[in-house]
Amino acid sequence: MIVLAVLGAGLSYLGYNESLGTLTVTTSQPVTATSTMTVASTSEESTVMTTSGTSWILQDELIDIPAGTTQVYCGYWSARHAYLEAGHVHVSYHTESTYHPVDFWMLTEDQWTRWSNSRYCDELLAFKGIVTKISRSGYEFTTGIGSAGTYYFVFMNENTYPITVTLSVDAGLQTSEVTLTKATTYFSTQEIPYVTEKVTSSVVPAGFGLLFYAGIGLIAVAVVALAISRMKSAAPRTAPPSTSATVVAQAGPVVSPAAATSAGKFCTNCGAPLSARASFCNKCGSKQ
């Protein structure tokens, strides 16, 4: 019983110490969250632009030619030259008066050298070039150029007064295409749901655990056992059945009360004869 009580006290003490601490309780639950993401997309748009224009070589070139015919010269002349690429060339000229023509030649560089070295009027006026002599106050034409090089535009004034010629030379109508690419970026917001967990933790007192209650139980068992033991030791002893006394009385000698008084005394429990000074029965051990 003492061992059970000590063991129970120890367990209760340990359980009490545990109850002074704390416990962390963690709980989790599913939560649906939303993720926001910005998405960029780029698109390209191409535009073809066509432009047309005149590639000018000489534009409104003014050529002043002195008065022409004299007794010595057949006329005064003036020339302009330009470098032309192979292809087509457009030439136009005009004077200030439609009634006063000028002589015109278009010559290659080699032809120009031979023309300018001529010494006679008939030879000059009859010279053959790309464009042979044209005697007009204005003229416009387009001709083909077989090879690139320097070309000369020659004017001669056979009039008796000065002449001003306006000359224009261009490479014809030029067409070009330009491709313009334009990139445009668009931004959009997308929301994407996803499942996550929400974790919550809390601190609570530990409380009395199994050790504490086990110790209390052992102490209770020891107390109950001790109480039962004491109850058994304090209970009075019951007298033997009357048949035993009768048998003992029959087995002993028959003594009259007067003889019993003079000889001694009898046991109050079993009736056995005792001496006058006896405190306990020699037979049953009962106190007299």
Overall description:
This protein is α+β, with helices and mostly antiparallel strands and 288 residues long. It has 3 domains: 1-21 and 206-234, no CATH class; 50-178, Sandwich (Jelly Rolls); 241-288, no CATH class. The chain is 25% helix and 48% strand. It has helices at 2-19, 109-116, 121-125, 210-234, 242-251, 257-263, and strands at 22-65, 76-84, 87-95, 102-108, 131-136, 138-145, 149-157, 163-205, 265-266, 273-274. The strands form 3 sheets. A 4-stranded antiparallel beta sheet has the order 1-8-3-6, with no helix packed on it. It has a 4-stranded antiparallel beta sheet with strand order 2-7-4-5. Helix 1 (2-19) packs antiparallel against helix 4 (210-234). The longest helix is centred in the last third of the chain and has 25 residues, at 210-234. The protein is rod-shaped.
Q: Strands, helices and their partners?
A:
Layout: H1 2-19, E1 22-65, E2 76-84, E3 87-95, E4 102-108, H2 109-116, H3 121-125, E5 131-136, E6 138-145, E7 149-157, E8 163-205, H4 210-234, H5 242-251, H6 257-263, E9 265-266, E10 273-274
Antiparallel strand pairs: 1-8, 2-7, 3-6, 3-8, 4-5, 4-7, 9-10
Helix pairs in contact: 1-4
